[in-house]
UniProtKB/TrEMBL annotation:
Pfam short name (any one): Mntp
Descriptive protein name: Putative manganese efflux pump MntP
Keywords: Cell membrane, Ion transport, Manganese, Membrane, Transmembrane, Transmembrane helix, Transport
Matches recorded under PANTHER family: MANGANESE EFFLUX PUMP MNTP-RELATED
Membrane topology per record: Multi-pass membrane protein
Predominant location: membrane
Gene Ontology MF, one: manganese ion transmembrane transporter activity
Keyword hit for Plastid: no
Task of the protein: Probably functions as a manganese efflux pump.
Family membership noted in the UniProt record: Belongs to the MntP (TC 9.B.29) family.
Bilayer-spanning residue ranges: 12-34, 41-63, 69-89, 101-118, 130-154, 166-184
Gene: mntP
Location relative to the cell: Cell membrane
Keyword DNA repair among UniProt keywords: no
Length: 186
């Protein structure tokens, strides 16, 4: 492979990593509107980054076999999970209890990370077919999604201070919007 071809592949994969990470950023922005400690933000970003490593890796390994069938299902499941999480956040924002129904810890963090990274699984399926470099792909996807998630969560905290008690409902609306976007692409 020539140097220009390797540079082209690096540039293409980097743009894909940032594009996939922008979903994590946007969703992190919504989730950041609930009160989170710095340690939670660190763990959430790291967990989403790990999911953005393993989901495309699994997708790339499965590649040709399931690409045409499973890519669509993964997107639908991701959209449904985001709708569920967003709806729960909105519902809990109108309850007396200050604690949200779904917190990004334990099983809630797994659901959150899975919903954010399912699209990277679908991309991994496609990249497995074209023979993209596995290590380079998963490293770029993991780094971009981790960094962008942290940025979204931190900005979400700032926005939360501006909107006060309505911030969780706004964050839920953001998650709902991305769920709808996944389920009903234009």
């Amino acid at each position: 492979m020539t140097a220009s071809a390797m540079l082209g592949e690096l540039l293409t994969l980097s743009m894909m990593a940032v594009a996939l990470g922008m979903d994590a950023f946007s969703i992190g922005l919504g989730m950041g509107m609930i009160s989170l400690r710095s340690k939670q933000i660190f763990i959430i970003g790291l967990t989403i980054g790990i999911f953005h490593v393993f989901m495309p890796l699994f997708g790339m390994l499965i590649g040709k076999v399931l690409s045409s069938h499973f890519g669509e299902i993964a997107t639908l499941v991701g959209g449904a999970l985001l709708l569920l999480l967003g709806g729960q956040m909105i519902r809990s924002s109108f309850q007396e209890d200050d604690k949200p129904f779904v917190m990004p810890v334990g099983f809630g963090l797994i659901l959150f990370s899975l919903s954010v990274s399912l699209d990277s699984f679908s991309v991994g399926l496609s990249l497995g077919i074209v023979g993209a470099r596995v290590f380079l792909t998963i490293a770029l996807f993991g780094l971009a999604s981790t960094g962008l998630t942290w940025l979204g969560l931190l900005l979400g905290q700032k926005v939360q201070k501006w909107f006060g008690t309505y911030s969780e409902a706004i964050g839920g609306c953001v998650l709902l919007a991305f769920g709808i976007k996944l389920l009903f692409p234009l």
